[in-house]
Amino acid sequence: MIAGIWLDVLDEIARTCAAHGRGDLLQTVRQKRVQLLDPRLRVLVIGESQQGKSQLINAIVNAPACPVGDGRTTVLPTVVQHAEVPSAALVQAPPPTPGRPAGAVLPVTGERTPVPLDQVAAGVAGTFGRRPSGGPAYVEIGLPRALLGSGLVLVDTPGTEEAAALGAAGPTAAPAWADTVLLVSDSTRELSAGELTMLLHVARSHPNVVLVQTKTDLVPDWRAVAERNRQHLAEAGVPAPVIPVSAALRLRAAAGDDRELNAESGFPVLIGRLQRDLAGKSDRLARAAVGVIARTVVEQLAAPLRAELEGQEVEEQSGPISRLHAAQREVDELRRCSTRWQNTLADEMADLLADIEYDLRDRTRQILREVDDAFDSADPLVSWDTFQEWLERSLTEAAEANHEWLVRRCDWAARRVADNFARYGGDVLPPWSMTTPSDLGDGLPELERPAVDRFTTSQKLISGMRGSYGGLLMVGLATTLAGMPMINPLSVGVGALFGGKSIRDESKQLLRRRQAVVKTAIQRHVDDFFVRVTKDRRDAVRQVQRMLRDHFTGLTEELQEAIIRSFRSAKQAADTDAAVRDQRQREIRLKMTRLAGLFEQAQQLTGARPAPAPLEPRP
Asked: Using only C-alpha atoms, what is the Rg of the chain?
């Protein structure tokens, strides 16, 4: 394909940026134009620390260009390019200015400071020749290598950890000016989450990314690691090939001129890929780069247009007609709200009555159970006064607790009904309060002392004589057979024993009858208490229900009047700006259509089916 085609598309992108008043994008496109017309191939090597990036570059050029070993850390980017004689220099931009931020990435132009070859490691570490007050800097190394002389430029970058510690833009910001990006990861493990994230970020802004898997000589199953890395890339949707290499084998093969060992190192595949990229920069790589920058430019130009179009639609939706429809919806919603709050009030009051009655019944049953337990052993003649005080106090406490629960439930019911008016805002609860009266126990029925039978002395004498007669007669008849008289000491003793037992049995029966009488009397008293208190609670609930009904009915009428006034006002309003808004929407859609055409034209350069342009406004 002729180079002028992608160049024409790139120039059209630049004119579009100028037409939209985006000088920043125009400058970026112009820089990309200069880069693509440059015959050199800039290869950016990125990755995490200690993955073998510097050694990879050394193995590619077969020279110790980048310092490695002894715990050295790359702090400044290192640019390795062709030179007739070995040389090194530190290039540092001027201090940052408002037009050029300090975090700018390569390439930079500025002051060049020669670096002795034996001080290259210190320069890369940022401890030689660099001015702290200066701008971005990098170390430039020149080597007389045929591969570099063909136009290949290699750039070693700090690891992601070092870049983050220095506050730099990091390697993921540099692919904007690179032609090929090599992400380096060693074979001791699979791709980490950070490396996958870096690949996703780089692949979005750069069309030519390669994953280089280093240190295959250290891991016997490096092929399995490479296969798993390919699967990770496929699942993440990153179209990056995986090239396993071993820098140690490459350098050893170069030292011994061993072609088989060199082939085993994997570098012929990597270098062949770089040579193909260099040969295809003016065609294949340029077309892919134009497609990427077209997407970036179109996204940034379309974003304000889309936002304005959405704003126009929002403004249209907020016009008089929309306000009229909104008022109509408010009327319908208020009608539904009226039905909901009336149903809620009726349901809450019905539940309230049932719960209050159940609560009171449960409390009185608990009192009756305690009464039964008490009078199973106690004698009403002895403990009535103490018991009467306890019973009155217990019933009063039950009535007070029940009334307190009634108050809380009424407040709960009022809030449940008020929740139906939440969309209208404000405090819609009625100004009311219900408290427990201090003289609640005065209105309770009075407990009368029940009439119970006493066991008098004459009753005890009669019961004793009746019981002793049978014992005396029975034993006396038995002793007459032995020749003893009927009345003898034995028969008299047995008669006395039977008489005492009769007195005790009669006393117990009278006690049980007194206990039964008292329990029955207390049952009737508690029933009277329950009926009276229940009647009071029902009256209170009905009063609260009427009060809530009247309050929320009045509130509904007020809301209805306000909504009707708004409805009439919206109906009378005129949509005078409709024509202007429609004209502006047509202009925006025309610009977005042109951007879509430019995007499709750029995507067709790659020969692939163009992806949908990110232009349509969000629903």
From this structure: 50
